[in-house]
């Protein structure tokens, strides 16, 4: 894995240059480094564990399979999103999740967001998404995401204004568009 950029050269996450509007004060973010790989692999395992329960494997085999899948996903993200911000989510300085975001002139791509199970269903994911949507609204950009067909988050994204744009087989490509404000011409 490439060495992280020095702190002064690392671009800030635009949504958090100003004080966040939607995030708890005890959340912080840190650029991912090679030292974080064990945590990230365990995070991936916790988010996929239920899926592999169907396989006739031992827990050791399930864990090995998920580690392999994590490594493949990680390499995919590094290859296909080389400029993305890959951040640890920390609560009171303890890693609790990850968020990967890629930006270009037209869009913000939410590549991945995951939280450890004890931190799910507490509004953290919603707060993170609101920060991204606020940024996108201010910059007049769409937010895009690929959601796996069986992922329960699909309904969550729909509730937050995303629309399914394309069925890509295993994934659904979804977009959120900023609200267009139409100003009336008051000049006479």
Explained architecture:
The chain is of the alpha+beta class. The protein has one domain (14-176): 3-Layer(aba) Sandwich (Aminopeptidase), CATH 3.40.630. It contains 4 helices and 7 strands. It has helices spanning 37-48, 59-80, 124-139, 153-159, and strands at residues 27-31, 85-91, 94-103, 107-115, 142-148, 163-167, 171-176. The chain is globular and about 75 Å long.
**What's the structural domain tally?**
1
Tell me the number of helical segments per DSSP (H or I, 4 or more residues long). Answer: 4
In the CATH hierarchy, what is the architecture at level 2? Answer: 3-Layer(aba) Sandwich
Helices and strands: which structural class? alpha+beta
What percentage of residues falls in helices of 4 or more residues? 25-40%
CATH class designation: Alpha Beta
Radius of gyration: 18 Å
Indicate the CATH topology.
Answer: Aminopeptidase
Order of strands, main sheet, comes to: 1-2-3-4-5-7-6
Compute the separation of the termini in Å.
62 Å
Q: Please describe the biggest sheet, giving its number of strands, its sense, and whether it closes into a barrel.
A: 7 strands, mixed
Instruction: Say which CATH homologous superfamily is assigned.
Output: Gcn5-related N-acetyltransferase (GNAT)
Shape verdict: globular
Topology, number of strands:
7
Topology:
Blueprint: E1 27-31, H1 37-48, H2 59-80, E2 85-91, E3 94-103, E4 107-115, H3 124-139, E5 142-148, H4 153-159, E6 163-167, E7 171-176
Helix pairs in contact: 1-2
